Amino acid sequence: MKQTECVAMLLAGGEGRRLGVLTTNTAKPAVHFGGKYRIIDFTLSNCTNSGIDTVGVLTQYQPMTLHDHIGAGDPWDLNREEGGVTMLAPKMENNKMNWYKGTANAVYQNISFIEQYEPEYVLIISGDHIYNMDYREMLEFHKMNQAEATISVIQVKWEEASRFGIMNIDHGNRVKDFVEKPAKPESNLASMGIYIFNWQVLKSYLTQDENDLESSNDFGKNIIPGMLQQGAKLFAYPFKGYWKDVGTVDSLWESHMDLLEKDGRMVLNNMDWPLYTNCGNPASQYIAPSAQISQSMINEGCSIFGVVDHSVVFCNVEIGEGSLIRDSIIMPGVKIGKNAVVHKAIIGEGTVVRDGAVVGDFEGESISVVGEGEVVYKDADKLPKIFVPKNKVLLERIG
Q1: Residue 96, C-beta contacts closer than 8 angstroms, at least 6 positions apart
Q2: Residues 219 and 203: beta-carbon distance below 8 Å
Q3: Which of 41, 63, 341, 343 could form a disulfide with 37 if both were Cys (CB 3.0 to 4.6 A apart)?
Q4: CA dist 278 to 78, 281, 315, 372, Å?
Q5: Of all helices (H) and strands (E), which one includes residue 166?
């Protein structure tokens, strides 16, 4: 086995409860994004574009879709005889499944996988964030500071700070203190859940943590605070690009709407930073004479007969004549009939919206979500906060 300078461990076992019905049958990293991708495609593509060619993907919750999507890693050039991508699910021990107890325990259980490559550094990354990052630049920062651990950080909105690991740093970017999801944050400098460790240092702390019966076995709750308490050299790597934790319905919807803005804060498949995926080869799209499309993304295999405004429409979607889609995300294979209205909603893969059905919260700001494979009938009685206006009213609002 060849010696590898840096091995990546990609945490992809998240249950994603805050995404509700979108993660009933699939792990959060496998949720569809951006018309033809899945969320995990961003992290895998970052590895490929950064020259990281040895990646362990740690899965646990509803892993089948994720395993099928990644396969042998061909789309990301990670199908290799040495290194490449390896799926690392929990293992059976003594006829009992040894489930991952936390993010740190997941890596601890796969120490033997890492050791075979004799790395100097280990990159810990998550499969549920939207961003483009060159990990090589972060590794150079880590080396330059002779750090034992480096945390990639970004400033978040103060009202969102309690969702993240929050830290204070000195003028040289050395981390002074770190609190995981504080109730009253004293800073808005947030961990992105991206870490680089010197491997031998991390191995020692993982072993200590595993022997602590009171530990949650988590990087943010235990490993990072423990290293700080013992005086380890931790540095914060400031990231300036677009980054979004899409762990909630609101953030998933907002990140899709960001794709449609003129400022181009997030660009899919930049020529200088390709975004790879396992998408297959859908048929060409068809835009009928009756269709009206504005500020939207329409992907392969779609048949559009209605009005689509400020929305992201995935592959193989059908939208019938007289229907209106506005401020929405329509996942692959959705069939929307005639004279239907979908407003500020996320429609799960394979759902059927019948003729005349209405989905959306027209009175408030909430986002309506329909799970995969559902059938939405005209009365839509079971959907929350549904108000049924005439299509003409919405068309007038679009102007």
Answers
A1: none
A2: no
A3: 41
A4: 12, 9, 13, 20
A5: strand 165-169
Residue 285, CA distances (Å) to 79, 109, 311, 320, 398 in order = 31, 46, 16, 14, 24
d(CA 159, CA 154): 14
CA 384 to chain centre: 26
Ramachandran assignment for 386, one of left (phi > 0), alpha (psi -120 to 50 degrees), beta (any other): beta
Amino acid identity, position 224: I
Q: pLDDT of 142-171, one tens digit each?
A: 999 999 999 999 999 898 899 899 999 999
CA distances 305 to 92, 172, 308, 324, 328, Å, are 52, 57, 9, 10, 17
Whether the pTM exceeds 0.70: the reply is: yes
Do residues 120 and 5 touch, judged by C-beta distance below 8 A? yes
What span, in angstroms and rounded, lies between the C-alpha atoms of 66 and 57?
A: 10
Residues 6+ apart with CB under 8 A from 287: 293, 298, 304
Cα(160)–Cα(180) distance, integer angstroms: 13
pLDDT digits (tens, 9 = 90+) for 349-392: 999 999 999 998 777 788 999 999 999 987 644 444 333 333 33
* Percent of the chain that is helix, strand, coil (3-state, to 5): 25, 30, 45
Q: How many CB atoms lie within 10 A of CB 267?
A: 13
Measure the CA–CA gap between 2 and 144, rounded to whole angstroms. Answer: 25
Residue 16 near residue 23, CB atoms below 8 Å: yes
